[in-house]
Write a structure and sequence with these properties.
CATH architecture: 2-Layer Sandwich
CATH superfamily: Ribonuclease H-like superfamily/Ribonuclease H
Distance between the termini: 17 Å
Strand content: 15-25%
Structural class: alpha/beta
CATH topology: Nucleotidyltransferase, domain 5
């Protein structure tokens, strides 16, 4: 199954106040494994100023964004990238509302929410009463989010991928740096460690089967 981990950053919270998307990040996964296909764009909000509160979140200034492509210039490429694929988003209502606003402004077909899996909803159902923010879930699952000094769509996609795997009760293999056994292991360089997210780690047939069962149950429960 091919899915897209997706995240956006915006000039502010509400499309009713004219806020626009300033960044889109997409990470393609197949059976939970990254395919190395990525879509990432910073976007010119066409004169809409970045709210001070949004600036504190992502750090993208009006000056930085004014030279970037407009949404209409990247819309076709973006839609082709996500075509016929399920979208995995944390707090999906926010991102889908902003994406559909951009598509509506261009007279393009909107994204159907029934093709979206909201990891925030999954987390709230799985851990009722606990914080379900991306940072909180990274902490719960011991995922290193130290690069997330500010929000970034593509970094958040990489983190959300790891969270998603854990929410489905699948476990990524860990790197053991303290193995003192006599078996022959290659020494992993710092450069190789930094590329860990790009390694293709294939799930077992059982993991793939359990993933499909979970999605079928989740979608049926939510009337998708």
């Amino acid at each position: 199954m091919i899915e897209i981990i997706l995240d956006t950053e915006t000039t502010g919270l509400s499309v009713k106040e004219g806020h626009r998307i300033v960044e889109i990040g997409c990470l393609e996964i197949e059976n939970l494994v990254p395919t190395k296909k990525v879509f990432h764009q910073y976007i010119n909000p066409e004169g809409k100023k970045v709210d001070e509160s949004a600036l504190k979140v992502h750090g993208y200034t009006d000056e930085f964004l004014k030279g970037k492509k407009k949404f209409k210039e990247i819309a076709t490429e973006f839609l082709n990238f996500i075509k016929d694929k399920r979208l995995v988003i944390h707090n999906a209502d926010f991102d889908i509302t902003h994406l559909n606003n951009e598509l509506s402004l261009l007279g393009l077909e909107k994204i159907n929410p029934k093709y979206v899996v909201d990891t925030l909803e999954i987390a709230r159902n799985k851990f009722p009463g606990s914080s379900a923010s991306l940072d909180a879930l990274c902490k719960r699952y011991r995922i290193d989010n130290s690069r997330r000094t500010k929000h970034s769509a593509i970094i958040d996609c990489e983190l959300l991928h790891k969270v998603y795997v854990n929410l489905l009760d699948q476990k990524e293999p860990s790197l053991d740096f303290n193995d003192n056994s006599d078996t022959n292991h290659e020494i992993i360089s710092e450069n190789e460690i930094s590329k860990y997210l790009k390694q293709v780690i294939k799930p077992t047939e059982n993991e793939i089967s359990q993933h499909k069962i979970f999605l079928k149950t989740y979608l049926k429960k939510n009337n998708y």
